[in-house]
């Protein structure tokens, strides 16, 4: 794959030598390169694959990441036995010596904690959803619940890093970066990979490396959009710098970079030029996509009043729809605050109130605009929560520790079998009992839905070929339509 950089070097040198068009020429070259050359460059909008391996069911992903680990047995995984045995010790035959975190490993007892929330079945599918999520319950027949997900990571940072990059250790490319690298961008004026984070909910750090490019060219890293005056940091021109003067400066800078590239041949030089050019185009495209003032009242009725407050989860869901309309490839929403080691009933009520209507509105909005058929939406966190209480268990209060053994996510949209539940946990909600799905399996399935064979999207780095799923992963065919 490194040969693509060599091809790009020669074509770029010829182009600049013959036409000398500066950075404006670089933009034109990027467009020409999409169709004129079989191997796209790191700076091109085309992906390294040129085309998907097979016909995609989805063209973009909206990933609603619930950072902290939602308690599945309080939301989707109904376990009446826990209520029946509330307060009794977790049987050793169920735990089977599995490791605990340092937060509950010291406890003399592990008392089972039944959910205090009411469950009911919804839709023709009969999916179980708790009364914490009335809006989600309304769209049960649009969703595929995967109740048998599991992971090795038992603490937040390695667990989130694993979901986003396929490794518990920092430094690998994120999923959005892999998609940008493989498929490229479908919008020349916006990044292929955009990140939105709910404000006022940060209880665990979210590092930029979670949406980083790792060892891939830096053009593929995610770009965080923020609420406020400057949605993208350092994008606006300083006082006294006009758009015309910025254009001239970038043109001269590109010429210097072209000379540097001739001497060094470092492909990251071209990535830097491409980023400068993208930033220049984003000076007009970002304000346009962030401006929701022209959305009709019916849209705010759908998403709720919070959608008028920039930076909230509902507002970010609305922006996700606007980005999807503009063919952004990977849209990542982080909503922190799900780490409920204590006082879970109060905390999870707040979190569900934050996200419930926004999730429903996003699915309904995509569907009515004809976008749901080719947009894959994912909801879930980095692991689940324990079926026993961390700390004191009372009739109205309990906490739950991290639990990687089994948890629930839901999928909707492009290529997903709607109105289904896949996999199951045991009657205690502690172990997977049916159709286990590993994180690598989920990642392989997401790539499959975008037309990518997860074993064939690779990048050679330090002498070996890497991929998102490392040397693992099986497509979960049971969730595919």
**CATH class annotation:** Alpha Beta
CA gyration radius, whole angstroms: 24 Å
Cα distance spanning the termini? 33 Å
Low-confidence stretches: 1-44
Q: How many β-strands, per DSSP?
A: 17
Helix-strand pattern: HHEHHEEHEHHEEHHHHEHEEEEEEEEHEE
User: CATH homologous superfamily - what is it?
Assistant: Alkaline Phosphatase, subunit A
| Strand-pairing-aware structural class | alpha/beta
Shape: globular
Query: What is the CATH architecture annotation?
Result: 3-Layer(aba) Sandwich
**CATH topology name:** Alkaline Phosphatase, subunit A
Helix content: 25-40%
Number of helices: 13
How many domain regions? 1
Q: Report the β-strand fraction as a percent range.
A: 5-15%
* Overall pLDDT score: 90
Assembly of the depicted chains: single chain
Describe the largest sheet.
9 strands, mixed
How would you characterize the overall build of this protein?
- With 481 residues, the chain is of the alpha/beta class.
- It has one domain (52-244, 295-479): Alkaline Phosphatase, subunit A, CATH 3.40.720.
- Helices cover 35% and strands 14% of the residues.
- It contains 13 helices and 17 strands.
- It has helices spanning 3-19, 22-36, 80-84, 92-95, 134-138, 156-165, 175-183, 243-264, 267-290, 297-303, 313-325, 344-368, 439-449; strands spanning 60-65, 119-122, 127-130, 143-150, 193-197, 223-224, 330-334, 375-380, 384-385, 402-403, 407-413, 420-422, 424-425, 432-434, 437-438, 459-461, 464-466.
- Strands 1, 4, 5, 6, 7, 8, 11, 12 and 15 form a 9-stranded mixed β-sheet that branches.
- Strand 13 and strand 14 form a beta hairpin.
- Helix 1 (3-19) packs across helix 8 and helix 8 packs antiparallel against helix 9 (267-290).
- Mean pLDDT is 90; it is low at 1-44.
